[in-house]
Amino acid sequence: MSYIYLLCILAVECTQRARGWEYLNLQCRDNGNEPVDWWYIYKPPRNTGPHMETGINYSYIDPNTDRKWTAAPGGILSESMLRYTIAPMFIEEYADYLAIMEYDGKKPTKDFMGSASRGMMMANSLGGIWIGHTIPGFPDITKGAPTIPQEELQSGHMIMCLTLDLITLNTLATSIMQTEPYIKRIFIPQRINQYVPDWKMFLSPLPKATGTAVRNTKVLHFVTRNKSLRGLMFARSPGDPRCLYKSFAKIKQIVLDVYGHREHDNIYCSKAYSIRNINSISLKFKEMIYYVNNATDKMGFAVSTSAHWQKMGLSKSQFWTCIGNVENQYRNSMGGLIACVNHFRVWLAFDHLKVKEPECNTAEDI
Question: Where is the signal peptide (predicted)?
């Protein structure tokens, strides 16, 4: 009897341990703490409208949502998909099996144009995640649990999570390094060292690019671990004045509508490719429509358009969505990156944010 009892105890213990370590199979997590291949979060500015006064409300899309932004049941600082996703970094038992890298923007100086890159990566021996975001100082762990700095609740922000394999996470590290961000934290346990060899470059400073020696824009093709999202990332070094959205539109020969396009706010229209500005957005729910004032919105995104005049160009209609925070800076050449995916459901959700279809100035422009 005691032998059977011991086996039962061991079985329960092993099951509990297995469940715990399965969580370390790092993936983006949804609001039910279930693994997903990707998600996008949009946190609108504080006081956007009724029930959105606090600045902690958010909407999201993931593989299980139906082509539209869904209002989350709780706040972004509570039991949310964001908090579930980054939870492993706060579990002490995982410390020897989890590599972590957090990076933030870097202010310009006399001889440095600055960096607008913000995000974090986590990896173990099986793969990991990349979270790109627009929130200065996130995650703030000065009080223990991760939070968004109070001063950022008044602004709108975008957060994206991708579940990636180790090859992509290493290649992504080189793209992030191109943008020369401030490295807030990097921790690579000895047991994980061999799986993230390219992360070691963050341990030593990269020679800064100068105005006369700007590094070429890095282009990274990527696919999420379960192959549900495919896309491109463009990373530019500080001092490079070229518009990443324009570069992307030119490569894909598409019409690209851009929100938060402060750095390069000129409209460019041609028969081959075009850039148009989205001046305002809205969150459209069944009960109410919330209009967002982009003066307090630090979120930037772009969507290709299937407008009829795109057919005059060199490419078929494409369903691209790009997010980033390099172009929502005022008149500078900060380092930064944009991540673009070709996925109809993601595109439709972002396209529905537009209040109206942007236009080019004159017929001669196209």
Answer: 1-20
- The residues facing 183 across adjacent strands are 103
pLDDT digits (tens, 9 = 90+) for 135-146: 999 887 666 666
Q: In sequence order, what DSSP letters do the residues of 86-116 get, joined into one string? A: HGGGG-GGGGGG-EEEEEE-B--BTTB--B-
- Residue 17 scores a pLDDT above 60: no
The CA distances from residue 329 to 42, 109, 233, 237, 277, in Å, are 18, 16, 19, 15, 15
Predicted model pTM: 0.87
Per-residue pLDDT tens digits for 49-107: 888 888 899 999 999 998 899 999 889 988 899 999 999 988 888 999 999 999 999 88
C-alpha–C-alpha distance, residues 256 and 254, integer Å:
6
- The set of long-range contacts for 76-83, using a CB threshold of 8 Å and a minimum separation of 24, is 76/41, 76/43, 76/148, 77/147, 77/148, 79/31, 80/31, 81/28, 81/29, 81/30, 81/31, 81/39, 81/41, 81/161, 82/41, 82/159, 82/161, 83/146
Residue 29 near residue 89 (C-beta atoms within 8 A): no
DSSP secondary structure code for residue 51 in this structure: T
Nearest to 249 by CA among 274, 230, 269: 274
Name the least confident of 94-108, 207-221, 292-306. 207-221
What's the confidence (pLDDT) of residue 176?
Answer: 94
